[in-house]
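Budget justification aside, the reviewers requested a transparent look at the raw inputs and outputs of the sequence design task funded under Objective 1. We therefore reproduce one unedited record. The lines immediately below are the structure tokens for a 133-residue chain.
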């Protein structure tokens, strides 16, 4: 996108939305984080170090953001699974998003316990077709 401050304009974002910020620099990450915090997204992941997180948190507090807003941010983003490659990092990020959605009840469990397969909801239509076919 051209402007990180307005990069979310035109997107429908609600409490079930997960956002991941990975820009070409700290300043752009911060602008994107400010835009994300204006949205109702419950998960805002930012690629970065723990040192960067401390700096971000303090800067956001200085701007008046409170603990409730800061709890929505995950930095460094992803589960600590030892990922190195971009593909592994993507897996760790998606795993964290799934974990958070399940933990906070954003995705209901829709299993048919007779066969143990996920049958419906939230992008699992192929699993439903496979289990009924």
């Amino acid at each position: 996108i051209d402007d990180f401050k307005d990069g979310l304009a035109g997107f429908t974002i609600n409490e079930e939305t997960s956002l991941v910020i990975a820009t070409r620099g700290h300043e752009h990450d911060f602008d994107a984080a400010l835009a994300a915090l204006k949205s109702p997204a419950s998960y805002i992941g930012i690629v970065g170090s723990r040192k960067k997180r401390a700096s971000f948190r303090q800067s956001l507090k200085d701007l008046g953001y409170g603990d409730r807003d800061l709890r929505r941010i995950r930095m460094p983003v992803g589960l600590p699974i030892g990922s190195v490659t971009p593909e592994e990092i993507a897996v760790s990020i998606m795993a964290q998003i799934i974990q958070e959605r399940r933990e906070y009840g954003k995705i209901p469990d829709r299993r048919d316990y007779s066969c143990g397969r996920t049958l419906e909801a939230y992008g699992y239509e192929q699993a439903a077709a496979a289990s009924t076919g």
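The helical segments are 26-37, 50-62, 67-70, 86-103, 125-132. The CA atoms of residues 58 and 64 lie 10 Å apart. Computational costs for records of this kind are itemized in the attached budget.
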